[in-house]
Amino acid sequence: AVVGLQASGKTSFVNVITSGQWSEEVVPTVAFNFRKIRKGNVTLKIWDVAGQPKFRTMWERYCNGVDAIVYVVDAVDQDKFKSAKFELHQLLAQPTLTGVPLLVLGNKNDLDGHASVKDLITYLQLDKISDRPVSCYSCSMKSQHNLDIVLQWLAGRSH
Ligand SMILES: Nc1nc2c(ncn2[C@@H]2O[C@H](COP(=O)(O)OP(=O)(O)OP(=O)(O)O)[C@@H](O)[C@H]2O)c(=O)[nH]1
Ligand SMILES: [Mg+2]
Question: Which UniProt keywords apply (predicted)?
Fold first, then answer.
């Protein structure tokens, strides 16, 4: 399941790993999209969930039962870090999601002033998460930077 605040780049992520297609013009997701894609010998089934406030109560439902939660953050939009942290920890506190591995993506690192992985760990308090495996990468859907290691990480969560 791919979750995170609106305009962080969740749908861009799914588009880029599905087709390699990058676009500046992505329509905000309403509710969710389901995508199934084959990467090498792994099939990924992805819930791309909407990030606008009215949809956030749905996140838990889509994260329930998945092999991994991908939490996408706009690494440039520092004003939203507090809100991103709050929503993340609120989600992880759901008893149904205990132990589900978490991958945090600090997206848009093609832009100046993006937060580093170290910054994101601090701002999002990732070091306080102790009940599951947690990884954090800096990446860009636009330049496709680090998407290879992100896909490797996801493939490693499959069973
Ligand atoms: N510069 C840059 N822009 C990006 C990147 N990833 C996404 N964007 C832009 O950010 C905007 C929002 O992207 P979306 O993929 O629609 O974001 P979302 O998280 O799916 O948003 P919701 O569906 O509303 O929750 C779009 O204009 C994208 O082109 C990136 O890596 N770099
Ligand atoms: Mg979207």
Answer: GTP-binding, Magnesium, Metal-binding, Nucleotide-binding, Signal
